[in-house]
Amino acid sequence: MKKWIRMTAAFLACLSLAACASGGNSGGTAGTGDASGGKPKQVNIGTQQLPNDEMIAIVKGYFEEEMGVPVKVMSFEAGDIRNAMMAGEIDFAMLGSSSAILGRANGMDVSLIWIHEVIGTSEQLVAHEATDIHTMDDLRGKKVAAAFTSTAHYSLLNALELYGIDEKELTLLDMQQPDIIAAWERGDLDAAYVWEPGVSALLQKGRTIVTSEELAAQGVLTTNVEMVRNEFAAQYPEMVTAYIRAVDRANADFREDPVACAKLLGDYMHITPEEALVQMEGSIWLSAEEQVLPAYLGTSEVTGDYAESIVDTAEFLYEQQSLTKQPDHEYMRDFIDPQFVEAFLESE
Fold this sequence. Notes:
- The chain is of the alpha/beta class.
- It has 2 domains: 18-120 and 223-347, D-Maltodextrin-Binding Protein, domain 2; 123-217, D-Maltodextrin-Binding Protein, domain 2.
- Helix content is 45%, strand content 17%.
- It contains 17 helices and 11 strands.
- The protein has helices at residues 9-19, 53-60, 62-67, 78-86, 97-105, 151-162, 177-186, 198-203, 212-217, 230-235, 237-256, 258-269, 273-280, 288-291, 306-319, 329-333, 339-347; strands at residues 43-47, 71-75, 92-96, 110-119, 123-128, 143-146, 171-174, 191-195, 206-211, 223-229, 283-284.
- The chain has a 6-stranded mixed β-sheet, with helices on both faces. Strands 7-6-8-5-9 form a 5-stranded mixed β-sheet, sandwiched between helices.
- Helix 2 crosses helix 11 and helix 11 crosses helix 17 (339-347).
- It is globular, with a radius of gyration of 19 Å.
- The chain starts with 8 loop residues before the first helix and ends with a helix.
C-alpha cells in the first residue's frame, strides 16, 4: 500500500531539536462591523479543550490585551469547529491538521497561520484492558473508534497501513471523544485512537498500543493548527498579527514555567496539575522563530517542508474517500501563510 506522508530529513532533524475577527452581531456571525480605529467590534475565536498555547492565552486574557477589542471564545468538538468556520460564525479556529486540510481541500477560504503543537504522546491508540489486544496485529476483528477526519483518525489509518492491516479487517466506528469515553466505561469498545484528556481517561482501563510520537518517527506527522478566515485577515491583518503575539506570549510562559502553566490550565479544565502537565508535555510546542524554520511553515519567499505534509495528507484523505475530488497540490501548498508570524517577528 502506498504510504502518503513523506517527511524530509530536515523536518525530522528540526522535530528532534524542537522537542528539548470581526464583530459578532446578535446572531453570532463573524466579520461584521467596525469599531473606531478600523478594528472589529469583536473577534470570535473557535477553540477546543486542549491544554496548549491558545488555552493559556485565553485564560490569561492575552487575546483581549493584544487585540484591544472584546474577544468571544467558543468551544467546539473536533468536527463542529470546522463547520462553524465554514458558516462564518468564527474568525479563528484551532483544529487538527487533517481536519483543517480537509476544510481547505473542500474550498474553505482560509489560511493556516500557526502550528500549535506537533502531536506526540498526547494522542494514542489505546486498547481496553478487558481485551486481548497487545499489538497492532491483535486489532483484527475488533471494534475500534476514532473521530473521523480528525488527527486521531488519520493516525489510526496510517498505523493500520504501516502494520499491513486492511481497515476492512476490523470495525471502524466514527465517534466524538465524549462518546468514546462513555462507550469505554460501558465496555462497548475494544480500542480507540484519542487525544488528551481522552488518553488519560481511557488508560485508566486500558493500555497503549501505539502513540503519535512513534508514528511521527515513521513519517506520519500530525499537528494542531490555527486557521483564519481570509476575508477577516484581509480586512484586519493587525488582528491576526495580534493573535500571533498572544499565542507566542503563552508559548514563552510555558517554556519559562511549565509547572505554573499546568496548574493554571488544570484549574481551568478541572483536572489535576499533574494531568495537565502530562498532556502539555506530550506534544512539541513551537515558538514564532521556530514556526518559520524550513522544516515548518517557512517564509513568504520559501515555503517550508510542512507544505508537503499538507499535500500528502490531502492525497491520503482523497484515497480514503473523505474527499471526492483529487486535491490541487499548489492550492494546498498555498494554505500556509507565514506573513503574520513574520510581521510579529519584525515588530519585536
